[in-house]
Each structure stands twice: as structure tokens, then as C-alpha cells.
Amino acid sequence: MSEQVFIDALGDEIVLADSVREMILLKHPEVASFTEKLPDVLMLPDEIRRSFRDERVVLYYRYDAAVLDGKWITVAVKRIDRNYISTIYATDRIKSGDVVWTKNT
């Protein structure tokens, strides 16, 4: 199995397996238009929050005016043995959850 490895704003390795990438693109085909922004979302997010639904999941948010007429690119990372991307999507707003990290303005 092939995978991509990224470094996030916290200095951690984040893994995206090719099989997961394929499933994400099937579920969220619009993601194909902004997958090249993935390293920036992880390394330079506007905010990182812990999911209120699953404490093992951390959500990385980065606003991009060029994505779907202005959306937050969201990358969900499950932190278990390894830190791996479980999904990527665009949203109109940041979801609730504890703030883990925020960009210095």
C-alpha cells in the first residue's frame, strides 16, 4: 500500500494512504479540485480542533476564498497508533470542539 506523509503545524507526521484517498474522492468528488492544498491545510491551518464526537479525531481548518466560492477546507486526522487522514471536505463553518491550536494573527 502506498501513502503520502505530511508534517502538520504541531510537527507531527500525518499519513494519507492511497486507498483512503480513493474513498475520499468517491465520497467527496469536489475534493479533487483542491487536494494540492492539503499540505498547507495541515502545516498552516487557521485552527485545529478536537472533534466533540470522537476525542481521537482532530480537525484541521483552513479558509480558502478560491475553494467552492469560499469554504473552509477541513482535514480530519485520527490519532491512534499513527496519525492518519480519515477524510477531507469543504464546509461553510468550523464545527464545535475544543480548540487545540490557532494561527497567530
Topology diagram in text:
Blueprint: E1 3-7, E2 13-17, H1 18-27, H2 38-43, E3 47-51, E4 57-64, E5 71-79, E6 83-91, E7 97-102
Antiparallel strand pairs: 1-2, 3-4, 3-7, 4-5, 5-6
Describe the structure.
The protein is built from 2 helices and 7 strands, in the order ββααβββββ. Helices cover about 15% and strands about 45% of the residues. The protein has about 100 residues and is an alpha+beta fold. It has one domain (about 5-100). It has helices spanning about 20-25, 40-45; strands at about 5, 15, 45-50, 55-65, 70-80, 85-90, 95-100. The mean pLDDT is about 95. Strand 3 and strand 4 (about 55-65) form a beta hairpin.
How many structural domains does the protein architecture include? 1
Q: Describe the biggest sheet?
A: 5 strands, antiparallel
Strand content: 35-45%
Mean pLDDT across the residues is 96
| Form type | globular
Quickly give the structural class: alpha+beta
> How are the strands of the biggest sheet laid out side by side?
6-5-4-3-7
N/C terminus separation: 39 Å
Low-confidence stretches: none
Helix content: 10-25%
